[in-house]
Design a protein that fits this description.
CATH superfamily of the largest domain: RNA polymerase II/Efflux pump adaptor protein, barrel-sandwich hybrid domain
Helix content: 25-40%
Shape: elongated
Order of helices and strands: HEEEEEEEHHEEEEHEEEEEEEEEEE
Distance between the termini: 112 Å
Largest sheet: 6 strands, antiparallel, barrel
Structural class: alpha+beta
Strand order of the largest sheet: 3-11-14-13-12-15
Number of domains: 3
Strand content: 25-35%
Number of helices: 4
CATH architecture of the largest domain: Beta Barrel
């Protein structure tokens, strides 16, 4: 019994010791956490004091200089000025190349066979040059027949004239009656009329014989050939088409508003398919406007003699071509084309904001929406009125404008040419 009590007493003592050790460990950890908190607060106070001291120093320096430091620029750019110069105006148009005049060469014969064709499409021909020949056999026979009939009519006329002359000689003697004399005179007149008809028949058949030879009515180029060897001709049948004198013209299609700027004799540049420029001159403006397209035609003569050799060879009748009508010079306010940027579908430029101070080439930019016009020699015309911050003396951002936004701070630098380094 005594052993059991001793054992219980020992267990109670051991438990108390364990609880005491645990309490000691807990209080020790709390003491360490408190020390770390105190150290941290002291460090924070030291940092705050340090920052306050630096701020005080900064304020002291600012008070000594009187101004704050300049803002840091976001980009280095170059600027350009607006120019007011005279630009040659032009009005562009589209149109077709066509023959100046196209002659249709046909035949008046009927029922005659075509024997020879002497030219092809594209051949250059001279006035009176033989192009084709029809069969002459039948018509030559008709010529001989008509000439024989003419000879017979001439013989009959000679006999009738002789009889009428003798009758007039017998009139005084009374050997012949007045009625007979009148009959001889009528026979003479009838023979004369028959002879005249025979002559006309001979001329007609000779003309038909001449028409068996198809000749060129003018100098030019054969543009089409519908004739076929062996075909029997029909009166009025088309055989060839001829571009008279080989001359072409440009028929420009323009709106009524644009055509009002065009005058007869005005200079025109027509662009060939290879890029060469062919000079022309306005010959005529159509007196009417097409009711479907609401456009009018402007006829431009192409001046072959003023162009480079072979330039006209690139133009063919029926082809599409572009051209520009040269208008009078007008003043244009322009900026470098690189200064114009597109934002939200509108053209804009950036100018230096003169309402803000510019220190050491650093300043703020201002975005202005503009309306553009013509483009020539790397410059773009500005059609906007000189207001809303845009003036003739405005400094326009040239290089780097595409990377800017309204209100950006930039540094203005001088543009330096880029030279290639030697290899």
């Amino acid at each position: 019994m005594k052993y059991v009590l001793d054992h219980k007493r020992t267990a109670i003592i051991v438990s108390a010791l364990l609880i005491l050790m645990l309490l000691i460990l807990v209080f020790a950890k709390r003491g360490m956490s408190a020390d770390q908190t105190v150290n941290t607060s002291h460090s924070a106070k030291g940092d705050i004091n340090t920052n306050l001291g630096a701020s005080a120093v900064g304020l002291g320096n600012a008070g000594n200089t009187g101004t704050a430091g300049p803002a840091r620029p976001s980009l280095s750019v170059t600027v350009a000025t607006m120019q007011n110069t005279a630009w040659a105006g032009s009005s562009s148009a589209n149109g077709s190349i066509a023959a100046w005049q196209e002659a249709i060469i046909g035949t008046e014969l009927n029922g005659v066979r075509l024997n020879e064709l002497l030219v092809q499409v594209g051949d250059k021909v001279k006035r009176g040059q033989l192009l084709a020949k029809f069969s002459e056999d039948t018509i030559s026979t008709e010529v001989a027949q008509q000439e024989a009939m003419l000879a017979e009519a001439e013989a009959t006329l000679a006999e009738a004239q002789s009889n009428a002359r003798r009758a007039m000689q017998l009139k005084e003697s009374g050997a012949i009656s007045i009625q007979q004399i009148n009959q001889y005179a009528t026979a003479r007149n009838t023979a004369f009329a028959r002879m005249s008809a025979a002559k006309a028949s001979v001329q007609s058949v000779r003309l038909r014989l001449k028409q068996t030879r198809i000749v060129a009515p003018d100098d030019g180029v054969i543009s089409a050939r519908n004739a076929t060897i062996g075909a029997v001709a029909q009166s009025g049948q088309e055989l060839f088409r001829l571009i008279r004198q080989g001359k072409l013209e440009w028929r420009a299609e323009m709106t009524a508003e644009d055509s009002a700027l065009i005058n007869i004799g005005q200079q025109v540049n027509v662009f060939a398919t290879d890029g060469s420029v062919i000079q022309g001159k306005v010959r005529m403006l159509a007196p009417t406007v097409d009711t479907q397209t609401r456009k009018t035609l402007v006829y431009v003569d192409l001046l072959e003699g003023t162009n480079k050799t072979g330039a006209m060879n690139n133009l063919k009748a029926g082809m599409f071509a572009k051209g520009a009508f040269l208008l009078a010079e007008t003043n244009a306010i322009s900026v470098p084309s690189s200064a114009v940027v597109m934002r939200d579908g509108y053209a804009s430029i950036f100018v230096m904001d003169t309402s803000k101070d510019v220190t050491k080439g650093i300043g703020k930019v201002k975005q202005l929406r503009v309306t553009t016009g013509r483009t020539q020699n790397g410059r773009t015309e500005i059609l906007s009125s000189l207001n809303n911050g845009l003036s003739a003396t405005s400094k326009v951002i040239d290089s780097g404008a595409g990377f800017l936004a309204d209100g950006d701070i930039v540094r203005v630098v001088s543009a330096t040419p880029i030279s290639s380094s030697p290899k």
